[in-house]
Specification:
Layout: H1 24-34, E1 49-53, H2 60-76, E2 79-83, H3 90-102, E3 107-110, H4 119-127, E4 131-135, E5 147-151, H5 153-168, E6 172-178, H6 184-200, E7 204-211, H7 216-229, E8 233-238, H8 241-253, E9 261-265, H9 269-277, E10 282-285, H10 288-303, E11 311-314, E12 317-319
Parallel strand pairs: 1-2, 1-3, 3-4, 4-5, 5-11, 6-7, 6-8, 8-9, 9-10
Antiparallel strand pairs: 10-12
Helix pairs in contact: 1-3, 2-10, 3-4, 5-6, 7-8
The protein binds alpha-D-tagatopyranose.
The site of alpha-D-tagatopyranose (T6T) has 13 residues, from helix 2 and helix 8.
Length: 340
């Protein structure tokens, strides 16, 4: 089922929302019907349209990316719509992509939730005439998409390991919590984390990489399991927002808050609160607003037949309680909505 959280979906566009709810089968029929049409202007003519397909609608990372994309689309004169599924789910995202395809947008920025299963729907979207920006996560087939924009997640994982080294010291047991082992971004962070530990911190021993699901609850209970298996645990690296939101609760329940050091990827509002309260010690944050802006810029170039940059890596920031309130940090704190 396609779920568009009202919280997330924005209708700055004049594309009727019911068009977003057509089934995959209807999408295929619609594709056949539009063969030969100029899709750069979107189904209802007028200003070209750009659509955003998030990995997960309620996630502050994607909300912030939507805000950047929306602001840039407005600046450049594109109609804009944002959609996605409430869960990180292949079948739900495939349905969403098929629906977007039926709307014939001029450009689409999408974070594929799986590197392989989304290849066919996204190719179909391209064949329907849309220019596609692959943002954040990636597809195995890098020929799909006119531009690919993300953080350098491998490097970010290395930054997390360096921060962990500073917090824990030369020796100690470490665990990683990750939503799954199929998401390209979190996998790259874990690879970067492991590589940096191996290269620079021989005394930090990685006990486990636990798949905990993309929820705070999953992360909180995994912390308990990890501490039962490894009572001497000194540090935890959480690979994304949701895992970072749950880790503090898990440590509190085990009476270990403040004793086990925590480095979390991302900087959603709840993670920032956790940093402020001491439940988490450092955040490695991305620039989702900038990813959204740059993706719309590149899509605009592609639609306007101007040169497009194939690969763009956006900045990361290491945030601690010391620099949390620095003006330079503000750009790296994620939003709960576009007005905050
Ligand atoms: O870390 C981000 C994103 O980069 C990743 O691909 C999935 O999780 C987040 O959305 C945060 O929850």
């Amino acid at each position: 089922m396609i779920q568009n959280s009202g919280y997330f979906e924005i209708q700055e566009t004049d594309v009727p929302p019911r068009n977003l709810l057509v089934t995959g089968a209807v999408a295929v029929l619609a594709l056949a019907a539009i063969a030969g049409c100029d899709s750069s202007s979107g189904s209802s003519g007028g200003a070209p349209s750009i659509a955003f397909v998030a990995g997960k609608t309620g996630d502050p990372f994607y909300i912030t990316m939507k805000c950047g994309a929306s602001a840039e689309a407005k600046k450049l004169g594109y109609r804009f719509s944002a959609t996605g599924s409430a869960d990180w789910s292949v079948p739900e995202q495939v349905g969403v992509v098929n629906s977007v395809t039926a709307n014939r947008p001029g450009g689409v920025l999408i974070s594929p939730v799986d590197p392989n299963s989304l290849a066919v729907p996204v190719k179909t979207l391209q064949q329907a005439g849309a220019k596609v920006a692959i943002v954040d996560t990636s597809l195995t087939d890098a020929s799909i998409g006119v531009t690919h924009i993300s953080s350098n997640n491998l490097q970010g994982g290395g930054q997390a390991a360096d921060t962990m080294g500073q917090l824990v010291g030369a020796t100690g047991e470490i665990a990683v919590l990750t939503p799954d082992l199929t998401t390209t971004t979190t996998n790259a962070r874990i690879d970067g984390f492991k590589q940096e530990l191996a290269a620079k911190y021989p005394g930090l021993k990685l006990d486990d990489v636990r798949q905990v699901g993309d929820t705070a609850q999953g992360a909180a209970s995994a912390v308990g399991d990890e501490l039962s298996a490894h009572p001497a645990l000194a540090g935890i690296f959480t690979a994304n927002s949701q895992t970072g939101e749950g880790v503090g609760t898990g440590l509190k329940n085990a009476g270990k808050q403040g004793k086990v050091k925590v480095v979390s990827f991302d900087a959603g509002p709840q993670q920032v609160q956790a940093l402020e309260s001491g439940a988490v010690d450092a955040l490695i944050s991305q620039d989702p607003y900038g990813i959204g802006q740059q993706a719309v810029d590149q899509l605009g170039n592609a639609i306007g037949k101007k040169p497009v940059t194939d690969n763009i890596r956006t900045n990361l920031a290491s945030i601690t309680r010391d620099n949390l309130h620095d003006p330079a940090t503000a750009r790296f704190l994620y939003k709960a909505d576009c007005n905050s």
